[in-house]
Amino acid sequence: MIRIKEGRITIGTSLFIIFAVYKGGEDMIRDEDFFRTEGVPLTKEEIRAISIAKLRLEPDDVVVDIGCGSGGMTVEIARRCKFLYAIDYCEDAIKTTRRNLELFNVKNCKLIKGRGEEVLKSLDFNKAFVGGTKNIYKILDILTERNTEVIVINTIVLENTAKILNYLQDIERYDTEVVNVVVSYGKKIKNGHMMLARNPVNIITCRLKRG
Q1: What per-residue confidence (pLDDT) applies to 14?
Q2: pLDDT of the chain along its 211 residues, tens only?
Q3: I need a surface site. Which of 36, 144, 157, 211 has the fewest CB within 10 A?
């Protein structure tokens, strides 16, 4: 079993954020174990692990997953919280997530087809994961106005990251950080091994200030 623990090291003027893997807690599910549908995205295992760590899930948390895609984060979050709402507007995403909820015997999740900014208004939750950035301003308006305790957002496009950070910088009741994660896999070649990088992902975390 693996869990993720965050640490920070400063070398000169550079800050390195390190996520150490250690034993204990729930297993992270391998990417290849999920049911997949062509064209429906799946958050990769290492990104799921760090995003889960950033959410700091507790057994009593009620979480909303906005833009659930293939359900990778949906399944991982549900295994660690009290209840989860998973939202997506794409029918293929809903079908794929439903298959994965059944595959991993997840019972504490309600799957909802609809637009995040419309569905959120009728739900009660205390933490949120955002896997898609469509209509992100409207979604952030709702999440921050309701004082959501922790909001974690995954982005790939730099312009979307900048838009979100610019929006959040004016909301003083939240502490915000962004981590750029690049995952590389080793590939055996004739004279050794080389590392092949996947697309970098920006993980934005917003925590409601206490007191």
Answers
A1: 45
A2: 344 455 554 444 444 454 444 334 568 999 999 999 999 999 999 999 999 999 999 999 999 999 999 999 999 999 999 999 999 999 999 999 999 999 999 999 999 999 999 999 999 999 999 997 788 999 999 999 999 999 999 999 999 999 999 999 989 999 999 999 999 988 889 888 899 888 999 999 999 998 6
A3: 211
Residue 148, token pair as written in the block: 């959501």
Q: Give the angle 150-30-75 at the CA atoms, nearest 5°.
A: 40
Tokens of 1: 């079993």
Helices 136-145, 158-168: inter-axial angle, 10-degree rounding: 30
Cβ 153 vs Cβ 92: under 8 Å:
no
Beta strands 127-130 and 192-197 are: unpaired
Whole-number Å distance between alpha carbons of 73 and 101:
11
As a whole number of angstroms, the distance between CA 2 and CA 20 comes to: 10
Q: Return the number of other C-beta atoms located less than 10 Å from residue 135's C-beta.
A: 16
What DSSP element (H or E) covers 178? strand 174-181
Is residue 58 within 8 A of residue 36, CB to CB? The reply is no
Secondary structure of residue 38 in the 3-state scheme: coil
CB 90 within 8 A of CB 116: no
CB 153 within 8 A of CB 43: no
Distance CA(156)–CA(12), nearest Å, equals 28
Residue 110 phi/psi, 5° resolution?
A: -110, 120
